[in-house]
Amino acid sequence: MTVAAPDPHVRADAEARLLGLATPPGALGRLGELACWFAATQGQVPPPELTNVRLVIFAGDHGVAAHGVSAFPSEITGAMVGTFLAGKAGVNALASAHQVAVRVLDLGVDSDLGEVPADVVAHKVRRSSGAIHLEDALTDAELQRAYAAGRAVAAEEIAAGAQMLISGDMGIGNTTPASAMVAAALGLPAVEVTGRGTGIDDAAWQHKVAVVQQALDRVGERTDDPMETLKALSSADLAATTGYLVAAAEAGVPVLLDGLMSVACALTAERIAPGASAWFAAGHRSTEPGQSLALSKLGLEPLLDLGLRLGEGSGAVAAVPVLRSAIAVLRDVALLSEIMG
């Protein structure tokens, strides 16, 4: 089903207001464009203040991480879930600074997390996902559970008043399935989309490229179907993220995208629900080549380019003040007609 775009009439009204501001035409650059997009997603001009931004971090492990594609062991995934819950991760610091609510969910972490709130593990699908170069990431039933979980979580966050959603990721090895998802969507070989993730050396990168290509070759023409792509090449956390993004777009709630994992899922969401990407804005450009290729396909220009590769939703959260700046100028700058009497 095609997703309807943000209201074009509201966007036109926002653009007219932008032209009428007491600023030289075009002087606000990307801020002006962003403000008009946000106004259209909210259905009103001037747009409301952006006060309720909600980040959901989807955590999961990846079978491929045991095959030499990452600089870090999988045990870090579970440890980081605890760090998010304690409010001490990188993204927590940014979220606290910018008034963004943070929620973390275990979709496929390869450990028992112990004493965590029940909500954190309520949607757990499995412990780790399949090693995608050797087997499918998920079964049919697991794919449906993960995808439905993402949709349900989006609905919960929207019901809690979210004006904008962000998806975050946590999972050692997750740039490998995300790169495969981008390659599958764009019909590109692994070498063009695969980056260095957490900072692997040349030999490890070449091995990672080979693993991604082996996964693509194994799956073959099944990648023509976006849901088959998720089943074969993603993971529980990435399938849930994709469902979350589709549900947000269908509900008319904008999303600020983060790095490779977020954008790989956005590209897949657009394949599942054409038009969904009109509800997405790109928070930042990561160092991963696949992310830039996917953003180009989606027609999205990132707001920030800071060399970030932390994940977690951090780049998108760092971009929230830019969006708030854009909204402020469209809301609060006087019209030229007002100051000229």
From TrEMBL:
Name the source's superkingdom.
Bacteria
Quote one Gene Ontology molecular function term: glycosyltransferase activity
Function according to Swiss-Prot or TrEMBL? Catalyzes the synthesis of alpha-ribazole-5'-phosphate from nicotinate mononucleotide (NAMN) and 5,6-dimethylbenzimidazole (DMB).
The catalytic activity of this protein is classed by the Enzyme Commission as 2.4.2.21
InterPro entries xref list = Nict_dMeBzImd_PRibTrfase (IPR003200), Nict_dMeBzImd_PRibTrfase_bact (IPR017846), Nict_dMeBzImd_PRibTrfase_N (IPR023195), Nict_dMeBzImd_PRibTrfase_sf (IPR036087)
Keyword Transferase annotated: yes
User: What is the name of the protein in this document?
Assistant: Nicotinate-nucleotide--dimethylbenzimidazole phosphoribosyltransferase
Q: Which family does it belong to?
A: Belongs to the CobT family.
Report which reactions are catalysed by this protein.
5,6-dimethylbenzimidazole + nicotinate beta-D-ribonucleotide = alpha-ribazole 5'-phosphate + nicotinate + H(+)
Q: Where is the active site?
A: 312 (proton acceptor)
Keywords assigned by UniProt, alphabetized:
Cobalamin biosynthesis, Glycosyltransferase, Transferase
Q: Which Pfam families match?
A: DBI_PRT
Signal peptide as annotated in the record:
none
| Organism of this sequence | Nocardioides daphniae
Mind giving the lineage of the organism this protein is from?
Answer: Bacteria, Bacillati, Actinomycetota, Actinomycetes, Propionibacteriales
> Could you tell me which pathway this protein works in?
Nucleoside biosynthesis; alpha-ribazole biosynthesis; alpha-ribazole from 5,6-dimethylbenzimidazole: step 1/2
